[in-house]
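User: Quick sanity check before I run a bigger batch. Here is a single chain. Can you write out its predicted 3D structure?
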Amino acid sequence: MGREVLALACPDWREASLAIDARNGEIAYANWRALAFLEARAPISVFGNRLIFTDPRHNQQYFTGLEKLRTSLTEEEVFVLAGSCEMDWFAVTIHNPQGLYREVLRRSLDAAEIASEIIFVEIGRTNKTPSAQQVAAFSDALKFTPAEAELVFSLAQGQTLADVADRRKAALSTVRQRLKTVLAKSGCRRQADLVRQIVSLC
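Assistant: Done. Predicted structure follows.
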């Protein structure tokens, strides 16, 4: 029954979608779109039944995201990565099943003696990354300061808060505070929501 439950959670009509055992990062299930995506050896491939990203920063974001979602009630993490050509970009969303769905999933998988620490990963093609001009227009509309606009552009490029702090020679706490201001101005609750909004609007 385990694979049937995972197949329902990762339907073939959805974009590249995988069920991951968050304890060890192994792939428990992948729909056909995910298999085709990984077969193409885009900026993500499979090694030892685990997702491996070409960019080490994305590897770190991915595995940090898995651990964060596994050990907390956080719902999701999102980051953007570049494909093989400049106009090919992907949004990676790591979902933590919530509420009743989470309990049903765990009971079903336990019954099938399959690891129950399941987290879902979706890889959606964005077809583009927001340009500096698009992010500037987005930032202007929301009245971001120059420093806030720079932070937004960095996040849209897939950089982490630590990357931004390191590049600007600023304290990570300062960058986090700036992000809080950006979230308040944009009406987003989380960094993941902000990234999704940027990618969808720009």
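The first strand starts at residue 16 and ends at 21.

User: Great, the batch can go ahead then.
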